[in-house]
Amino acid sequence: MRTGMFSLAVGMLLLRLLPELPPTWLLLLMALLALPLLYTRCYPIALVLLGFAWACCNAHWALDQRLAPELDGRTLWLEGRVVGLPATRGSTLRFDLEEVSARLPLPSRLRLSWYEGQPVQAGERWRFAVTLKRSHGLANGFGFDYEAWLTVDRIGATGSIKAGERLQPATGPNAWREAWRTRLLTADACGRNAYLVALVLGDGSGLGAADWKVLQNTGTLHLMVISGSHISLLGGLLYGLVAGLARIGFWPARLPWMPCACAAALAGAWGYGWVAGLEVPALRACVMLSLVLLWRLRFRRQGVWLPVLAALVLVLLIDPPGFWLSFAAVAWLIFGFAGRLGRGRWWLTWVRAQWLMSLGLAPMLIALALPLSFTGALANLLAVPCVELLVVPLALLGSLFLVLPPVGDWLLWCAGAVLEGLMRVLEQLSLWSPAWSPMLPPAWAIAIAAAGAVLCLAPAGVPSRVLGLAMLLPMLWPQPKAPEHGYAEVRVLDVGQGLSVLIRTQSQAWLYDAGPRRGDFDLGEVAVLPTLRGLGIDKLDVMLLSHADNDHAGGAIAVSKGVSVAKVISGEPGRLPARLRAVPCEENEWLIDGVRFSTWQWPRADESNALSCVLRVEALGESLLLTGDLPVAGEAAWLKAQPRPYADWLLAGHHGSRTSSGEAFLRALEPHSALVSRARHNSYGHPHPQVLARFASLGTRVHDTAEEGAMHILLGARQPMRGVRANARFWTEK
């Protein structure tokens, strides 16, 4: 049984490695060929093939739910019901819409945003005018994969609302959860109401960027929204209550206590999951606990690994595209505790559990490009019992007793007071040791580290366990690969409607602009920093901010906080924050590792765009020109100042606006390729059709971050540009 379940799980997990999905006819043929093998000794191979075919078919169904390409960017009237709990950030309201109906076929689930719109509550039915967009996120090869997240959540499209009218008031469970959230937010909980909402209802939208940062730095993200541990805790408490009553003789003798204990735990877990909306983490926890309880009733002699494998297979059958750390965490705990002789003190057991989780999950966290928290084990030693034994029970009891306001309010205040004290400690730990995001190591280093973790955490009788620590080193300290002498590696990052270009030589790294910042959404932190860390860059020799407009310099503070910056140059140093200590752009030239860098600024500039600092990079005769937002008149001045104006690669000025990339300028340069950095469906219409026509008339090929993702060029090699989306996974739009 275990071999079969393991084979089926392996087949479904192989889906994660695919750049493209196989055609459905090939999957059907694969399944037909596998069926006869089920009745032979080769049945594990057959189950791998069947699992792989099922996962691929499920992924096909998920991608088929996406918005049709011809509807991308169109504004349509549609109707639907609001599901989940709407989240408000600033003036923007975001929520999911299901039961969608319109004149044209649309995905069954949409994620919508409404800027300065009317109040919207869960369970209401609305009619909206929506500008729909296909699932699309930033593509840099590093950082959060928004398109994968939308695919796992079965979101077929996103959209921005232009107008709307309410058709029906809130009804059903969603309306009840909305009222519950409102009551929790108005209670006196020592200012930690958003945390109570996250723990009780699974809605973390009320937590700000600073809250998430503290939780990430201390490795306690899993605690502050409803998770498998909370659901398991409630189920365990109910099971223990019935078992305790039976042990002391207060349980009816005619009722077998174990089936009743399992039934109580099952009802409590699924009830808690339903209150939280049965999102993927809660559903996964409920499934796993259900199988553990079934194993406890009927299959205890089959071994403790059976319910874990069964839960993994069942969840993968429901949702193959996803992969979760919770199964790995449970597996490490079983590996660390099962089969050990003797029973140690409870506090040593608790410390060992944190050690198992921290060391065992480290290779997987790094492989998934997630940060490591050095204070995570210490923080969880305090936070896990505090949250799960005090805060969650108090919050749930307080919620149940809201019908008796004095009792319910007092219980919620107690939960908030405990949270207040805990968060103060976590905030200090976060300041003391922020999370660390290492360079993404090669696959062989992660495999060796995983084997090292197994060796370290093996039973005491296993020889040479200390060698496991040495096996972790290649993963923790990979060697970044820099270009050879004379070459320059250029990456035009995908930062939406903004600009950021990373330039690396053999010994130095320069950053030209740092992307935009819009409220809490900072592209410097979301896109630029993950790329720098993923490439192993912890120091910028120069950060050159062309000018001070937000779309070019908004992310500069986040970048300067995340990595060391030796020097900041800008066309508008006076408009930048004082902490950047920017110096003015001057006409200058450097020869670094055989690569020539030169800067220039228009002396007669009288406004922000015209003050853009121009950077030219030349490696082995191949050149790249970056002009920021320099207008046509500034381009003409640059031409006059250059004895031999030419460029092989040109970054289109002002994101492709018609105010830049003038015809005379392009004819003088004759670039073979132009690079455009912009957001898809941006409100400015970039790149402008006139600019595209100018490039077309010269035979210049245009590359676009909105279509190709981040663009990689090895300057000096005279090779074609490579876009991230060309080599992305199957869920990434190409």
Automatic annotation (TrEMBL):
Keywords: Cell membrane, Membrane, Transmembrane, Transmembrane helix
Domain Metallo-beta-lactamase: 497-680
Transmembrane segment boundaries: 43-63, 231-251, 271-295, 302-318, 324-343, 355-374, 443-462
UniProt keyword Phosphoprotein, yes or no: no
Membrane topology (UniProt): Multi-pass membrane protein
Keyword Kinase attributed: no
InterPro entries xref list: ComA-like_MBL, ComEC_N, Competence_ComEC/Rec2, Competence_DNA_uptake, DUF4131, Metallo-B-lactamas, RibonucZ/Hydroxyglut_hydro
Any one biological process term the GO annotation gives: establishment of competence for transformation
UniProt GO cellular component terms: plasma membrane
Entry's localization field: Cell membrane
Pfam families xref list: Competence, DUF4131, Lactamase_B
PANTHER family, A to Z: DNA INTERNALIZATION/COMPETENCE PROTEIN COMEC/REC2 (PTHR30619), RECOMBINATION PROTEIN 2 (PTHR30619:SF1)
Name of the protein described by the UniProt record: DNA internalization-related competence protein ComEC/Rec2
Organism the protein comes from: Pseudomonas knackmussii (strain DSM 6978 / CCUG 54928 / LMG 23759 / B13)
